[in-house]
Amino acid sequence: MKKGIITLFFVSILTTFMVGCGNKALQDGTYTAEDLKYDAHGWKASVTITVSSGRISDAKFEYTAEDGTTKGGNTAYGEKMASAVGITPDEYIAQYTQKLVDTQDPDKIDAISGATTSHKDFKTLATAAIDAAKSRNTTTTEVELFK
Predict the structure, then answer these.
(1) Helix (H, G, I), strand (E, B) or coil at 3
(2) Cβ count near 129 (within 10 Å)
(3) Overall domain count for the chain
(4) Is residue 123 part of a domain?
(5) Which of 56, 60, 116, 126 has its CA 20 to 30 Å from the CA of residue 89?
(6) What is the pLDDT along the chain (147 residues), one digit of tens a residue?
(7) CA-CA distance, 135 to 128, in Å (whole number)?
(8) Which of 20-40 are b and which e, b meaning 16 or more Cβ less than 10 Å from the residue's Cβ?
(9) N- to C-terminal Cα distance for the chain?
(10) If we measure between CA atoms, which residue out of 41, 39, 66, 62 comes closest to residue 129?
(11) Strand order in the sheet with 29-35
């Protein structure tokens, strides 16, 4: 009997330690991470995730210029990009964000040909937004993306 109580005690301590040191659950809310500054082409990347019931239920990814123009909403930019690399910002943004909702893990999202720099930016910012969700930090997290 005494051995069983001691074993149970150590198992409960070990379980508590493992849970406490493991991944924190995502806290419901909306979390944003954005580039610290505009890149050499005048764009600033950002990722916003919405967490519901501890899971990413929505994700938004965008590049915004100082005047408020976005890559995703810029038809001329999209056409130019599509003719150069075969994909538009609307297409890769939709794919990256949907994959994040599906997998819940930026590391499980493959780069899309023609949007590899955006993949790196998305992955870095999504990871920062997820970290914010773990600590319930609802202020915008600024990340320096290296270009």
Answers:
(1) helix
(2) 30
(3) 1
(4) yes
(5) 56
(6) 555 444 444 444 444 444 444 457 999 999 999 999 999 999 999 999 999 999 999 999 999 999 999 999 899 999 999 999 999 999 999 999 999 999 999 999 999 999 999 999 999 999 999 999 999 999 999 999 976
(7) 11
(8) eeeeeebeeeebbbbbeeeee
(9) 63
(10) 62
(11) 55-65, 43-52, 29-35, 141-143
CATH assignment of the domain containing 135: 3.90.1010.20
Cα 123 from Cα 85, distance rounded (Å)? 20
In sign, the C-alpha dihedral spanning 22, 23, 28, 34 is: positive
Instruction: Give pTM, 2 decimals.
Output: 0.83
Question: What residues make up the domain containing 71?
Answer: 25-143
